[in-house]
Amino acid sequence: MKLITHILAVLCLYACSPATDGQLTVTGLHEPVEIIRDEWGVNHIYAKNQHDLFFAQGYAAAKDRLFQFEIWRRQATGTVAEMLGPRELKRDIGTRLFRFRGDITAEMNHYHRDGAEIITAFTDGVNAYIDEIRQTPEKLPVEFNVLGIVPEKWTPEVVISRHQGLLGNIGAELKTGRAVAALGADVTKDLSWFHPMDPDINLDPSINKELLSADILELYNAFRAPLQFEQQDIQTAFRPSDTAALAQRYDEKEEDILSIGSNNWIISGAHTADGNTYMANDPHRAITVPSLRYMAHLVAPGWNVIGGGEPEIPGISIGHNEYGAWGLTVFSTDGEDLYVYDTNPDNPKQYLYRGEWSDMETISETISVKGQEAVTVELLYTRHGPVVYTDSIHHKAYAVRCAWLETGGAPYMASLRFNQAKNWDEFREACSYSHIPGENMVWADQAGDIGWQAVGIAPIRRNFSGLVPVPGDGRYEWDGYLPITEKPHALNPSKGFFATANQNVTPEDYDHWDAIGFSWADAFRGDRINEVLSTGQKFTIADMQALQVDYLSVPARTLVPLLDSLTLSGRAAEARSQLSGWNLQLAPRSIEAAIYVAWENEIKALAAKRFIPVAARDMIGSIPLTKLLGWLTAPDARFGPNSREGRNTFLSEAFTNGINYLAANLGSDMDNWQYGQEKFKHTYLQHALGNLVNEGLQKKLNLGPLPRGGNAYTVGSTGENNRQATGASFRMIVNTGDWDAAIATNGPGQSGNPESPFYSNLFAPWANDEYFPLYYSREKIATAEAGKTILNPKE
To answer: Angle at Cα 240 formed by Cα 239 and Cα 241, nearest 5°?
Structure first.
């Protein structure tokens, strides 16, 4: 097992930073709190009461990720235009349109019986640090000076914002509707992969197909879009001499979360070398600096939980307490629908519902805009939800119904209940509060139980699939929500393990398909995990680590043998010979991996060009690889009258295209065609401002490049791009019989401040698939202590 060595970390810490020991006085605490920082940057917080525990979590997280906190706050409150000007006005309108407007106290107490106290304490801690740092603005992280802003105060409403969550499929729903309008339902199904059933994707005859091409989701997409910075946002003193730099994104959001991937699994003691249950989880999201996840250890009466979550929310989303461990991956759950209304020609704020005109609800909001007068906007709502688009010419309106706007829809917040679960029954009860996202929650405990529970608020649709827009006239309604504990689940499966990787794991005899989605990830990662866990060996934590970063390509098992049937010559034939006897590993510096991935990429690109009609390419961007492999192994008339010969011609063209790509990008010498280099599969983390500032700051803010292996279909998922944009920046593996044996990673580091030694200390180890020990006992933590801070209450 590779671990970051103690010596190197300590040397870096003392060489790069001043001592962190100290006593601080903080307004808002009830009693002293001790924060021990280990050498990998994880804060272990010891408080004497619950209030102080979450106050200190907010304080410490804000101190590490202040700029990330400020961006989150602005996105959550619809105040980005106040910072970046009129180009962000639609984002702010969208944010306010989709703001939670229910009872805030009931909302907070949904997540925990003491939710209001916990969330308020957390935001008070955040604000305590903001008050402190604003007294010495010269110590603000560099981003604030670059943009000429200061951090502002938080409220509990910021914490429960939905803007950053994996919320649903509304974008795919509109694209599918447009594809059906252009191609018909049968062709659209042929190019898509809905399973396991054959859902109805026909458009209701009353929907005007031509009108679906309008920018209906503009406000929704603006609300959800990555925040971008431009050169004009940068203070002059920090700009580069060349001012032609491109706009930069602050973060990344995936349009299709199933194309990103996550893995988790649980193993019973009967299949481990030491007889303990194991839990492993590596959620895959955007790879950014700072990372999406943040790790912490929270200790107080009733609390002793360690792991990771998003830094701006209290508690631990993925981790363990002294009883059990839990993790998550996306479970397909469709909680959004697009409704199309006829509006009254004499009053566009009325829509037809069950034969009568209904009034839209109206809310007025005033938005501050940098460089101009404030703008007052009118937000409209139907009984189904926010109105995102009105077409006054054709007398139409469109609204999005969102299950996540119900009480309890803040992403991951129900983790607070997981954090105190003592057994499977308590964990499953906690799952019943977990509305967003739809997840596969897994549990392993010291008592020997392992379990799986799918979670997520699931609308019941009796007469429609939810895959295309529907009329809002009352004929297509949700019939309530499925109780979460009635979603698929299992306790102590007979095979002794359970694994999920966003593939369909729903039992065939499941009764509630009307509340389960139809879109799942390709099963390659899940198949590989199940294959390894089915070997019958007695597993160790080191085996779990090897599986989390496994780069074996399951699709290559199908594709590579097809090369024998192809007629190739010259360089292409030479490249094919390289794959003879290849171990199918997409390893860094592997020539075989480079050749194979270039071919696989070209197969997908050529298939999209060949089989997706031009009229639908904006709606159907690619064909799922699972479907492609089915076509290629059992070719039909789509490849021509001689289907097998046509298939071989198709594969030969794709292979030749891949070889030409490698030659053009990596040179004519095949020895240089190595996977995992800067021009072909690497990681380079570019800060939000990283290409907009002068060279000196760029070197501080940006990290890499470093080589990577794998691709979107390997368990060690690194996405489809040459520069890794998605994957597991956070990983965790837990042995429930030895909490100090847990290992983790969180690249590039715990801190978002480029001046901190914890900004990038985990970057190279993460890129090299290394882990660090995530100590739990006070004794082991003491051996890795890098600094200690005592927060004292102000008298």
So the answer is: 120
